[in-house]
């Protein structure tokens, strides 16, 4: 048996994310709400909390209907509540693995969130990559994606993509969906960085599509650990069985807060913050184009930042960290080398944190 694949991004966060005195521009989460914020927008919740029983929650009678109303899936699809998108990925890949005794191949974007490849590796999949770096602009290599769709049993698409913030073209997504359908494969579309106005959900593509999302990224509630899967009714039954062997359900607090938040979901969208911060980021990148090169994101909360320097990624990371700002180093956290040192920059932080962090980066580079 091969060694367990290390989760480089999460190892990085375990070491650095909670250090005091750092302006965190490494995170892909939008600025988190406080529980008091939730109480302010959901006035009935505080009273409900007082009589909340610490029993197993009945999510199918409370949380799932709220998710169904929010997601509005086609009639042939249902929703399963899960403990964050990470559990969703594990359940889906485990369910697909359980249907075959032979070798299965999964296609994942590169770079991407490490759980796709890590869980696939754990379950014995052969992993195929398709890239976002073919032209120097970090745009999707459509031919690579087409080939991956043809050669894989399960295809993972992240839309918007982390870390580039790119959106996949709707016609290309439909084309890829048709290829997967013809092969009776599985198309897993991760939409955790999608706001409804960014693009239509992939749930409209057909019964072979499985869509996942959560309240973590663009809704500012990563600590709630509440996500969902939208897929066919048959798949939901199988996924629920696997979940019964692991977490059973989201916890009672996630169920209680989640169902109330979903009733007032527009109040918790970080759309305005992200639009403001994206504009600030673009302006800063233009003003400092001699130092950095920003790959402009279409949506989401993250962007690729290249540094115009001959120094190593490690040197630059240490420079930024010692100056008081945290960025996620690309090669270290995503395993992808690039002609220039690159970092994932999360721009969902409070606006003042972003401004101060960007100023710190440019000041540190000029002094260096």
Describe this structure as you would to a colleague.
The chain is α/β, with parallel strands linked by helices and 368 residues long. It folds into 2 domains: 8-31 and 270-367, Aspartate Aminotransferase, domain 1 (Alpha-Beta Complex), CATH 3.90.1150.10; 38-267, Aspartate Aminotransferase, domain 2. It contains 14 helices and 13 strands. The strands form 3 sheets. A 7-stranded mixed beta sheet has the order 2-8-7-6-5-3-4, with helices on both faces. The relative contact order is 0.18. The model has no long low-confidence stretch (mean pLDDT 95).
Poorly predicted runs are none
What is the name of the CATH architecture of the largest domain?
3-Layer(aba) Sandwich
The helix content, as a percent range, equals: 40-55%
Sketch the major β-sheet: 7 strands, mixed
What spatial order of strands do you see in the largest sheet? 2-8-7-6-5-3-4
Number of helices: 14
**Rounded radius of gyration (Å):** 21 Å
- Strand proportion: 15-25%
Give the count of structural domains.
2
Q: Roughly what is the average pLDDT, rounded to an integer? A: 95
Q: How far apart are the first and last residues' alpha carbons, in Å?
A: 46 Å
How many beta-strand elements?
13
Q: What would you call the shape?
A: globular
CATH class of the largest domain: Alpha Beta
In terms of structural class, how would the helical and strand content be classed?
alpha/beta
| Secondary-structure element order, N to C | HEHHHEHEHEHEHEEEHHHEEHEEHEH
CATH topology of the largest domain: Aspartate Aminotransferase, domain 2
Assign the CATH superfamily of the largest domain.
Type I PLP-dependent aspartate aminotransferase-like (Major domain)
């Amino acid at each position: 048996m091969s060694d367990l694949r290390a989760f480089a991004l999460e190892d990085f966060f375990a070491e650095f994310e909670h250090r005091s005195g750092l302006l965190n521009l490494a995170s892909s989460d939008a600025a988190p709400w406080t529980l008091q914020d939730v109480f302010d927008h959901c006035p009935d919740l505080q009273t409900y909390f007082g009589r909340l029983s610490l029993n197993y929650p009945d999510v199918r009678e409370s949380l799932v209907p709220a998710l169904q109303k929010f997601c509005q899936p086609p009639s042939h699809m249902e929703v399963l509540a899960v403990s964050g998108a990470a559990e969703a990925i594990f359940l889906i890949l485990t369910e697909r693995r359980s249907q075959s005794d032979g070798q299965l191949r999964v296609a994942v974007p590169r770079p991407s969130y490490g759980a796709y490849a890590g869980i696939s590796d754990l379950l014995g999949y052969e992993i195929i990559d398709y890239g976002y770096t073919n032209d120097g602009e970090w745009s999707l290599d459509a031919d690579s994606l087409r080939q991956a769709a043809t050669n894989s049993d399960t295809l993972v698409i992240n839309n918007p993509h982390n870390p580039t913030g790119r959106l996949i073209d709707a016609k290309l997504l439909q084309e890829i969906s048709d290829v997967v359908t013809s092969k009776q494969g599985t198309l897993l579309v991760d939409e955790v960085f999608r706001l409804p106005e960014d693009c239509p959900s992939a749930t409209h593509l057909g019964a072979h599509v499985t869509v996942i999302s959560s309240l973590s990224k663009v809704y500012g509630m990563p600590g709630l650990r509440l996500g969902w899967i939208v897929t066919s009714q048959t798949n939901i039954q199988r996924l629920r069985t696997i979940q019964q062997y692991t977490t059973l359900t989201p916890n009672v607090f996630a169920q209680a807060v989640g169902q109330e938040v979903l009733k007032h979901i527009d109040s918790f969208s970080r759309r305005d913050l992200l639009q403001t911060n994206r504009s600030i980021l673009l302006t800063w990148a233009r003003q400092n184009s001699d130092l950095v090169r920003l790959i402009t994101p279409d949506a989401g909360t993250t962007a690729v930042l290249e540094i115009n320097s001959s120094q190593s990624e490690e040197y630059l990371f240490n420079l930024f960290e010692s100056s008081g700002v945290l960025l996620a180093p690309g090669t270290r956290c995503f395993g992808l080398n690039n002609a220039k040192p690159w970092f994932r920059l999360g721009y969902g932080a409070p606006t003042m944190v972003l401004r101060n962090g960007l100023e710190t980066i440019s000041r540190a580079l000029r002094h260096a």
